[in-house]
């Protein structure tokens, strides 16, 4: 079995570099072209570069499993990886709400990576609560 890569404190600074390189970009794409009439319709699209732990692992040349081992062993590295998670959470939430990101995918990642889940009433299964019946005499 291969030995895990050696941890280096410089990886903490690499988180900042990784986040800078992974920002979304506005790009122009041709959405309609009519060569006969000689025009093109351009549309603005968002090229999403969502930061992920997997992406960061590739960025520094290690496996995701090694990141998790280092995260457990080195508290300063854990805090650095939390910056990636926080940036991902912020962008998914804000861009999912604005419609810049696919809301279904944003919801999926937020629920699986960030603990955000839809809540349902577990006590009544979303049914009306019956009126309580009080004992004793009524009307007198």
Protein model, in words:
- There is one protein chain.
- This protein is of the alpha+beta class and 140 residues long.
- The chain has a single domain (10-108), classed as Topoisomerase I, Chain A, domain 4.
- It has five helices and two strands, in the order H-E-E-H-H-H-H.
- It has helices at residues 10-21, 53-60, 64-73, 75-98, 103-114; strands at 25-34, 39-47.
- A two-stranded antiparallel sheet has the order 1-2.
- Helix 1 packs parallel to helix 4 (75-98) and helix 3 crosses helix 4.
* Principal-axis shape: flat
Number of strands: 2
Portion of residues in helices?
Answer: 40-55%
Average pLDDT number: 88
The top-level CATH class is Mainly Alpha
Number of domains: 1
Major sheet characteristics: 2 strands, antiparallel
Low-confidence stretches: none
Taking strands numbered 1, 2, ... along the chain, how are they ordered across the largest sheet? 1-2
Please trace the helix and strand order, writing H or E for each element: HEEHHHH
Q: Please count the helical segments.
A: 5
Specify the CATH architecture. Answer: Orthogonal Bundle
Strand content: 5-15%
